[in-house]
């Protein structure tokens, strides 16, 4: 792995349904540190599977995948990797309903050795960055869709990850709110110097990225 | 984690009620056994007689009225190994107690025992608050602590027994629940009053320091096989302990049942909870939570649920015992005692139910594949 590449993937293969469905069919991909990448493609093309592979939520059957210097094919327990290197933003915000906004942002820090005062300080700092510091003690169910997604972004960033993986982060939002979220992601990406990989099916969203990858039938078709 | 088990209020409440009933039964039985234990322990008191002699077929505790001839008192005293004997005439006072007086009273009356005042030590009364009665027809009486409380009598008060006024000269606490709920007066006075001249209900026998109570008991029995029945205090205690043992076994059986039924209930509650929170568990895994932490979280929730049930069950058990005692146990023969053992057992069973019931759901939650969990709708 070169110094600059934070993600290096070679011939990555993944099948479902006992090999009947080829979700990934030989992916080759290199992503530089600090890059903003959009992944596009029709549904079922394998773009979410690819994102899950990078985030170590799933394991590939063949090929190599190194993320932030860690060989994901050879590491047994990947929870620490996920906690330290990856921040997820899902289409659905996926917040825990009976915890406060602040507690939701603190969740990823439970697996770290961060003290509770520091956890609180860091979570508040990020809530301020996404403009929700005043709603820290609120229940997420009382928040609007856009606000919830901003909480999810704060949660993704709380452990200083090297990569943010966003799976259609604006998919459940109206276009105006979606724009706010995209701008927030983009500004945090440049401010925190974090690599951002985003799956989307909307071309205008994809165009905000430094580079667009088109995935089709489990392969990267072309990149622009 | 503390709030999680109560997200679905109805389900949590039902699970808690189920376990709480089991715990309440354990606590209630424990309290009854505890009460019986503390009262049997006090019947075996140093200094008092070891053998009770009654007429055959009259029972050990229940014998009352004049059924034995007084001459037996001296006869038995001459038996080998016997140190002292005391004849006791036991009758019911027929004094009605004020209704509503701390939950007892509907039965009416208490047991009045007639005994030679010099033999009180044989029935375990070695100290009296006040003075003891004098033998003869002085119409003096000493009453047990419980009677004093329930009839609101103090030293100097009078009690009407069989139409005769008796002066309370002392109040005693023997520790024996049968005696403490009764009174003692001069044997001859009571005999005359109740037309039982020359008769006693039973005889208490104290053996020599070096004699074997069981052996002496057997000797007495063998001398008058068709007439008398002799029981040692140890025998009586053993008999009570046997019944206590049965209650104890029943209590353990119920505990086991509570563990099984409660466990199934908890498994159901926690599996439903894990099922509903599949997506949430997926998120926790995505943000880096280890399987172990998720296992601990679900198991912890399960234990919190059962510990809440334990607290509810203990309160329920105490209240139930109080109510049952108020309604049905009319004589204040013994009190229910909540021992530390019972409390520990209740919490122990709850903890076990929590662990047993939570383990499988927790394991399932920890083994969820994050991508599957996140896809879950």
Question: Topology of this protein?
Answer:
The complex is a heterodimer of chains A (224) and B (377).
Chain A: E1 5-16, E2 21-32, E3 36-40, H1 47-54, E4 62-67, E5 70-71, H2 79-85, E6 86-89, H3 101-106, H4 116-129, H5 145-157, E7 163-167, H6 175-192, E8 195-199, H7 203-206, E9 211-216, E10 219-223
Helix pairs in contact in A: 4-5, 5-6
Chain B: H1 9-43, E1 51-55, E2 68-69, H2 71-77, E3 82-92, E4 111-115, E5 128-130, E6 140-144, H3 145-151, E7 158-161, E8 164-172, H4 177-180, E9 182-186, H5 187-193, E10 199-200, E11 202-207, H6 213-223, E12 228-232, H7 233-276, H8 278-286, H9 291-327, H10 340-367, H11 370-375
Parallel strand pairs in B: 4-9, 6-8
Antiparallel strand pairs in B: 1-11, 1-12, 2-10, 3-4, 3-11, 5-8, 6-9, 7-8
Largest chain interface and its two residue counts?
A-B, 26 and 20 residues
Number of domains of chain B: 2
What is the makeup of the main sheet of chain B?
10 strands, mixed
What's the CATH architecture name of chain A?
Answer: 3-Layer(aba) Sandwich
Succession of helices and strands of chain A: EEEHEEHEHHHEHEHEE
The parts of chain B where pLDDT drops under 50 for at least 5 residues are 96-107
Write the CATH fold name of chain A. Answer: Rossmann fold
- CATH class of chain A reads Alpha Beta
Beta-strand content of chain A = 25-35%
How many separate domains of chain A?
1
Radius of gyration of chain A: 17 Å
Instruction: Give the overall average pLDDT of chain A.
Output: 88
Number of helices, counting only DSSP H or I runs of 4 residues or more of chain B: 11
Oligomer: heterodimer
Number of helices of chain A: 7
**Structural class from helices and strands of chain B?**
alpha+beta
Whole-number mean pLDDT of chain B = 82
């Amino acid at each position: 792995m070169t110094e600059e590449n934070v993600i290096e993937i070679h011939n990555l293969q993944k099948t479902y349904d006992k090999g009947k469905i080829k979700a990934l069919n030989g992916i080759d991909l290199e992503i530089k540190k600090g890059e903003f990448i959009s992944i596009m493609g029709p549904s079922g093309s394998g773009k979410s599977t690819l994102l899950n592979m990078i985030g170590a939520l799933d394991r590939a059957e063949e090929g190599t995948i190194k993320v932030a210097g860690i060989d994901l094919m050879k590491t047994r327990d990947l929870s620490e990797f996920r906690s330290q290197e990856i921040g997820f933003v899902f289409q659905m915000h996926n917040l825990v309903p009976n915890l406060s906004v602040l507690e939701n942002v603190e969740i990823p820090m439970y697996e770290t050795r961060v003290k509770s005062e520091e956890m609180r300080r860091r979570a508040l700092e990020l809530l301020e960055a996404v403009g929700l510091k005043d709603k820290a003690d609120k229940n997420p169910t009382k928040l609007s869709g856009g606000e919830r997604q901003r909480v999810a972004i704060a949660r993704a960033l709380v452990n200083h990850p090297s990569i943010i993986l966003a799976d259609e982060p604006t998919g459940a939002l109206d276009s105006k709110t979606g724009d706010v979220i995209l701008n927030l992601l983009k500004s945090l990406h440049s401010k925190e110097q974090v690599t951002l990989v985003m799956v989307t099916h909307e071309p205008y969203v994809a165009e905000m990225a430094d580079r667009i990858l088109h995935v089709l039938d489990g392969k990267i078709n072309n990149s622009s | 984690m503390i709030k999680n088990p109560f997200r679905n209020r109805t389900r949590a409440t039902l699970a808690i009620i189920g376990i709480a009933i089991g715990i309440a039964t354990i606590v209630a039985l424990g309290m009854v056994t505890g009460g019986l234990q503390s009262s049997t322990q006090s019947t075996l008191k140093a200094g008092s007689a070891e053998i009770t002699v009654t007429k055959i077929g009259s029972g050990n505790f229940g014998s009352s009225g004049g059924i034995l001839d007084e001459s037996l008192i001296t006869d038995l005293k001459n038996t080998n190994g016997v140190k002292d004997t005391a004849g006791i005439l036991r009758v019911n006072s027929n004094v009605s107690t004020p209704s509503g007086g701390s939950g007892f009273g509907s039965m009416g009356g208490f047991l009045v025992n007639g005994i030679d005042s010099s033999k009180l030590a044989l029935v375990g009364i070695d100290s009296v608050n006040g003075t003891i009665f004098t033998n003869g027809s002085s119409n003096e009486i000493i009453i047990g602590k419980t009677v004093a409380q329930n009839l609101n009598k103090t030293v100097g008060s009078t009690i009407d027994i069989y139409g005769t006024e008796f002066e309370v000269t002392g109040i005693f606490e023997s520790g024996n629940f049968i005696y403490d709920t009764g009174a003692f007066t001069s044997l001859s006075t009571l005999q005359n009053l109740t037309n039982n001249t020359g008769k006693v209900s039973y005889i208490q026998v104290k053996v020599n320091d070096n004699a074997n109570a069981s052996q002496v008991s057997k000797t007495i029995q063998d001398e008058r096989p068709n007439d008398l029945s002799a029981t040692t205090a140890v025998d009586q205690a053993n008999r009570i302990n046997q019944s206590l043992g049965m209650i104890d076994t029943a209590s353990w059986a119920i505990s086991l049942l509570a563990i099984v039924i409660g466990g199934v209930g908890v498994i159901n509650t926690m599996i439903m909870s894990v099922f509903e929170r599949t997506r949430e568990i997926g998120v926790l895994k995505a943000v880096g939570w280890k399987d172990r932490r998720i296992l601990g979280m679900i198991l912890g929730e399960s234990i919190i649920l059962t510990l809440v049930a334990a607290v509810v069950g203990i309160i329920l058990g105490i209240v139930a015992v109080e109510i049952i005692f108020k309604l049905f146990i009319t004589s204040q023969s013994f009190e229910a005692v909540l021992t530390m053992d019972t409390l520990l057992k209740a919490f122990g069973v709850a903890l076990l139910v929590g662990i047993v019931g939570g383990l499988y759901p927790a394991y399932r939650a920890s083994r969820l594949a994050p991508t599957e969990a996140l896809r879950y709708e």
